[in-house]
Amino acid sequence: MSTREVPIVVITGYLGSGKTTLMQNILKQENRKIALIVNDMGSINIDASILHKTGNQVVQVEMVEMQNGCICCTLRDEFMAQIERLSNDRSIEAIFVEASGISEPSSIAGAFVNYEEMTEDTRVYLKSVVSVVDVDRIYREFLHDLMSEEESEDGDVINLVMDQIEFCNLMILNKIDLLTADQLEEVKEGLRAIQRKAEMITCTNGQVDLDVILNREDFDFDEVEAYSSVQQALNNCEHDDVKACVDEYGISSFVFEEKRPFNREAFDEFVESYPGQLIRSKGYIWFSDDPEHVQLFEQAGRNASVTELSPWVSAWPEEELKPMLEDFPDLMDDWDEVYGDRCNQVVFIGKGYEKSEIVKLLYDCIEKHPEECLRQ
Predict the structure, then answer these.
(1) Which residues constitute the domain of residue 336?
(2) Contacts 24+ apart (CB under 8 A), 309-317
(3) Do 112 and 218 share a domain, yes or no?
(4) Which pLDDT band, with edges at 50, 70 and 90, does 55 fall under?
(5) Domain boundary residue among 227, 258, 290?
């Protein structure tokens, strides 16, 4: 357990999942003083009489709008300053952070962990990342999108929901009164397809005892990251395109790795007719018409996206690349003489698919004359 004194609990979950209701119930619990930081002033409306009766302290911090809705960049300044200020109040038992419904929890947690490591005298530590899940919506909307062959108009939303479920060490399954026992079990199985280990707690109207959230093992970034089906596939599967890993839910996964680039047009066609048996895919790729940038490929159900990220190290100017390799020689461990650090590495997770067929489709997308793209 942590030797630091003030636990931080990050509450995530998509819009309407019940984060605010959960916080209202926590603040009502008697003889507990909990500080609350909200990263979106408009996302919560706690009745003042409730706060007066309980004596809890609520602090609302309006966050600066950041690119892609990410708040982790502000966690090192105004946000962490508020947390440190609150932690100096010795009567506060814990600090809860209600993240925006469009926040990526891994970015928030990463910022907290970095802050802990860099600040020796801080009294705070990250206790848990909690994902509040609207089981009714998961069942009626997202579960259908994950399993169906129809493309949803909310592909970005589905990928965000998947990210929030994948990166947590506690899932609070809210609104269970809206489902039958069989429907709830179907939701649980669907969630386990993308999140293997995090504890699940069921509730109605966000009724969860504070001790259930606080009395658990401290947050471990590496362990929680490994909970996701994507990371488990990377950790457990052989990277030789031969073996797929199958778990107790009948969900299998494999990692596709290839140094040569994809042809963008061929890959787009592959995405357009994406195999319906694949539930989730995620990884880094590159295209022959852009040897400079890393591309993030994400898929959930019939919805897929490709996002341009930072440059590959091997695309750096020579005067910057040489000192970088000298300072970080481990970069050379997976360095290719032709492609440098460029590679395609994607985890594919699904049920009832024929792996050899998908691998063939992927190799059909590989650029036929890849070396030419590096001579452009």
Answers:
(1) 238-375
(2) 309/284, 312/286, 312/340, 312/341, 312/342, 313/340, 313/341, 314/339, 314/340, 314/341, 314/342, 315/291, 315/340, 315/342
(3) yes
(4) very low
(5) 227
